[in-house]
Specification:
alpha/beta, Rossmann fold, 7 strands, binds zinc ion
């Protein structure tokens, strides 16, 4: 039976989870401009859907936590609809949610992240979880599986080809392809400054959102789920390392 933390009662939690399931997925996202064509909740929709697909594959070993939907998104704050919290607040919040899980027998936590701006804070949030005796794993799907994704798309980007494709496959009705655009500008190095977002994130996009298709999205989802299945197996079999000789 598929197990979603928030659908259980205390009694069913006790009967079905406690001392039986030790691995949980915490989807982490953000609410922010995603081009002019993708929904503001793009970075929540993707990790929540990845979590649901994994849950259907491993219902007896895995449970899904309610998502943390608000993240750190300073770079996109100027676009209407973006909601951003500070790195520190986000990191502390996720860290405390995570360490609480150890009280209920969760040993492995997968932070299923959908948003680039969250990466630094989530790295830090994993530290108290490790100190509480847990194994915390951070998955940034578009980065970790970039090589695979680039066999499907010609490029990647924020509301770019890959993310637009995934949204078309997951939430087609909420995407307006007529408003998709291409950002020809790419910063030469990591830079933050006021006023450069009009280029660095032109139309709240990096890359080319016009190239996204549902077919590409379906393929990306397939490869991501296959990689994540391998990750879970490795975690459960204590295979945390590859050996380089
Ligand atoms: Zn995104």
């Amino acid at each position: 039976m598929e197990v979603y933390w928030e659908r259980l009662t205390t009694k069913t939690f006790q009967e079905q989870v406690l001392n039986q399931i030790d691995t949980a997925i915490l989807p982490c996202g953000s609410v922010e401009a995603h081009g002019m064509h993708c929904p503001l909740g793009t970075d929540n929709i993707a990790p929540i859907e990845f979590a649901a697909r994994l849950e259907s594959l491993y219902p007896d070993r895995l449970l899904v936590l309610p998502a943390v939907p608000y993240g750190h998104t300073w770079d996109l704050a100027q676009w209407p609809g973006t909601i951003s919290v500070s790195n520190r607040a986000f990191s502390q919040y996720v860290g405390e949610v995570g360490t609480n899980l150890s009280r209920w027998g969760i040993r492995n936590i997968i932070l299923m992240n959908g948003h680039g701006g969250n990466v630094g804070a989530l790295q830090e949030a994993m530290e108290p979880m490790a100190e509480a005796g847990m194994r915390a794993v951070l998955v940034n799907w578009w980065l970790d599986y970039s090589q695979d994704i680039l066999t499907i798309t010609t490029g990647q980007g924020h509301a770019g080809e890959d993310e637009t494709a995934v949204m078309l496959a997951m939430a087609k009705d909420w995407v307006r392809m007529d408003d998709a655009s291409f950002n020809p500008y790419k910063p030469k190095f990591r830079v933050k400054a006021q006023g450069i977002q009009d280029k660095s994130l032109r139309h709240a996009t990096t890359g080319d959102g016009r190239l996204g298709t549902k077919e590409k999205g379906d393929k990306i989802i397939e490869v991501v789920i296959s990689r994540l299945s391998t990750l879970l197996m490795d975690l459960w079999q204590d295979n945390l390392f590859t050996e380089v000789r």
